[in-house]
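Support request, please re-run this one:
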Amino acid sequence: MSKRHLYPSPDGLVNKAIRGLISYNPLLSFDEANRVVFDTAYNKSNVSIVSGGGSGHEPAWSGYVGENFLAASVAGDIFASPSTKQILSAIDRVPSEKGTILVITNYTGDCLHFGLANEKAIAKGHKCRMIICGDDVSVGRKGSLVGRRGLAGQIGVLKIMGGAAGAGGSLDQVYDLGVAFSQQIVSIAATLDHCHVPGRAEHATLGTDELEIGTGPHNEPGYRKLSPAPSAPELAKQILTYCLDETDPERGYVKFKAGDEAMLLISNYGGISHLEMAAFLDELLEQLASQWKLEPVRIACGFLETSLNAPAFSVSIVNVTAAAQNCSYSADEIKSFFDAKTNTAWESMTGSQAARRSRAEQFVAPPQEPRKVIEEAKDLRIDPALLDKMLRSACNQLIAAEPDLTKWDTVMGDGDCGETLKTGASCLIAALDRQLAAQGSVIAVLQELEEIVEGKMGGTLGGILGIFFVSLRTALQENLAIAQSAGLPKLWATAVQSALDNLTQYTPAKVGDRTVMDTLIPFAGGLRSGVFADGVEAAIKGAELTKTLKPRLGRATYVGADSSKGLPPDPGAWGAMVAIQGLQSGITEVIS
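Re-run finished. Output below.
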């Protein structure tokens, strides 16, 4: 975990963060002295929901102040409860004709300070109540005298209560809903490493092959340390077992019957990429359906309640049906409270889910491609054995070169060149195994290459090759007569040059720019002699020359490379050269 921060000291950081956070909603006001954020447009005739806690969990809780959510929030120092005075100030900022409900997570400091503020508010004449949310299953019933600690399931409680309050619910109705909903949540967290708090010199760390399950949001150690770290599917299996195994006497807090509706909340603690978090959400949904017969009716996934920059997350599952049985609202009404639109950070994590389709309906097959028929008069055919051998040789040499290409592209670019070319080569070999070259059709091969490049090979190189191959096929078909009048070598020289000429409409790259064109352009020039070996020799020289060139196009231009100190070859140019050499090796092998 990185120890680097934009703000190496926590001094003044919390207030500055909240000042920035509220800028997205001009209706919010900030009492800096008490660190209270409140909604100036809140409705006094509705129940006021107030929450808060230590900072470092953003957007919780100031990011949830707004319509159909919190009326006010209050923030303490990083991972520390706000004071009683601060909490009272928040209550006073949003007085309600119906009453105020404080909703907090189950941590000692929060319970004490919010509890005292609740009592003092009642003494001042407020109709005030408090709900303490504990949803973590990792500790178990025998593990703690204070009950389950609070994780991000509480954010779901706040949203449901905020929606009910916005709909005009009474103090009793909204309170009973909050209690019922909070008691039907099971959550657990897992972490790849601990967060780093600005200004602190020491913090816990995990080994490179360790993972903790049952961690808290304040750098608390996990219930179990797993080494070696499980795969994502295995981790998902363990998490769901902890949450849903009703036979576990320690953790079987929530029961699900057939037909019960569930909500799923995934909270990224701040340090896991959206890419991986979305993939893990998919894994959870797959296992919930296949192993637990649950398909959540609502999902929230994102930065619900963070822990600074921790590469960790929590999973919360709520039995909506059971919650409805213990309050005055139906399951459909509870779902409508989840859906009630807000002007807060919540919207970025929940999308629009009121209109329902099954998960299976969301995945569709690609459109069926029409069968491509090659007219005999527009086809170029050569010896099938020679064609197969040339292509396999080129592919095998590209695959063998992948480690070097990846290494060089990691130094000078984004590291994808080697894998991109390997993917293309592997796909072409698979097509050859399906008898692609059995008829000796060069046009069929080029059509297959177009499909591979367009469907499997992204990035700049994939785009260049895609244009090159389709232009090459078109040029060959338009100039087939040259093969009869001037011979096959002349046809290839003409077609390759035509393809490059067409490619220049889409890229400014030329010889000397340290790109794949440093190979392709000399190759085309060498083919004009009518001897394939001359083209190969020119391609090799062009690729070798890129070792001395300074990048002028692409991502490599951003790395500040100094060619005087020696550079690796351009991986795109080198990969093209390897493929061209492979074609020649295949010819030689057949001839010999």
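The first helix runs from residue 13 to 21. DSSP finds 19 helices and twelve strands in the chain.
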